[in-house]
Amino acid sequence: MAKELQWIRPEVLLSLIHTAFRITNAQGKELYRNAGWDALFAQLEGIDADKLAAEALAGGTAQERSGILILQSTVMAEPDFTYVVTEIYPANLDELAQEQSYTGADISARLNRLKLRDCIANSTSMISVFEKAQQVANYPTTVLLMGETGVGKEVVASFIHRNSRRIDKAFIKINCSAIPEQLLESELFGYETGAFTGAKAKGKPGLFELANHGTLLLDEIGDMALSLQAKLLRVLQENEIMRLGGQKAIPLNVRIISSTNRNLRDLMEKGLFSEALYYRLNVVEIWIPPLRERREDILPLCGFFLSQFCEKYKLEKTFSQEVKEYFARYDWPGNVRELCNMVENTIVSSDCSVIGLEDVPQRMIAARLPHTPPAPDATSMQDAVESMQKDVIKAALEKNGSLRKAAKALDMDPATLHRLAKKLGIPTV
């Protein structure tokens, strides 16, 4: 089969990747069919795919079941080989496209209302997160942001502050897991002169005071020590603090947003988190989904970070289509933070203007892509395409005598041709 497929022009195969199709020779013998063909017919009981394909071959177009399905066959004549490509289309393709445009218009309208600025949301789940955040922004209630590490909890917290009436006041952030318990207490509540050894002579205001009339983000609240949780609960209940070593209560008007990647209910059951504090913090809970559950955001985020880093480092680079497709399928266990770091990594470590898969760290390339659907025939198709690519590149190199001339003849960038030749094991010197 691969021998017969090598006569088929690679651009024909590549143009069909996103459709359900099969390929036969002129006599009707099947050479190849993709997973999309089988998947579509599996959903349509009572339809004989082979019979319809034969009708399509004979008459050009075959329809079945009240116009639900249309098969279109095209005869491809090469100098040494004739083959037939049969594609499947839903008969209501125009209606589906119209429905998609309505959906796209709805998403666009929702995004316009949000005015996200530097926030990226292309998925409906993330748009819903920002819509909920916008809804509660103007109320002084406490908000608990839940989600895995790196999903963008701080970005959502900043969005809430920016959309509140406190926008012109301070937005203070503190990571509760990064500071030892004793130091965290003085950072939050401040201290008076001589409160402890090493204290500043004039004392120091705490973050609650600095955030007064503004917003305070308590990041990784699940890692706060129990003893400090009790003091935080008292502050939230009484809306006042007292500095360490102080005698005077300081009234507060602070919007509290907390965030965590831990399951606070599990911590409560284990006695590691205060139940009273949990219900005080969790007046409004917003769950931020991981990046693998909102794949529509991956490539827009890539583009956003690419633009940022290119501007920062005064570079002009872009990702190859191969890299984009891999990024879109990768699970990103570190979520947006990992994606941001990966974009910066590839930008600074690549010496080409187009970043290819060879520039992506091997640890990522070696990672399993569990969500990639099985495609039984994908290997044979890939072998056929690579075989054709090898023949074309070898012929161009032999005819033109140099990589640069061969690239010009193939209408390709020399660096891209060099990378592809290296990938296929073709010597270029």
State the main characteristics.
alpha/beta; 429 residues; five-stranded antiparallel β-sheet; elongated
Topology, pairings included?
Blueprint: H1 2-5, H2 10-15, E1 20-25, E2 30-33, H3 35-42, H4 49-59, E3 61-64, E4 69-77, E5 82-90, H5 93-114, H6 124-137, E6 143-146, H7 153-162, E7 171-175, H8 181-189, E8 190-191, E9 204-205, H9 207-210, E10 215-219, H10 226-238, E11 240-241, E12 250-251, E13 255-260, H11 264-269, H12 275-281, E14 284-287, H13 298-313, E15 318-319, H14 321-329, H15 335-349, E16 354-355, H16 362-365, H17 378-400, H18 403-409, H19 414-424
Parallel strand pairs: 6-13, 6-14, 7-10, 10-13, 15-16
Antiparallel strand pairs: 1-2, 1-5, 3-4, 4-5, 8-9, 11-12
Helix pairs in contact: 5-6, 6-7, 13-15, 17-18
Q: What is the spatial order of strands in the main beta sheet?
A: 2-1-5-4-3
From the spread of the alpha carbons, the general shape counts as elongated
Task: Report the oligomer.
Answer: single chain
Work out the number of β strands. Answer: 16
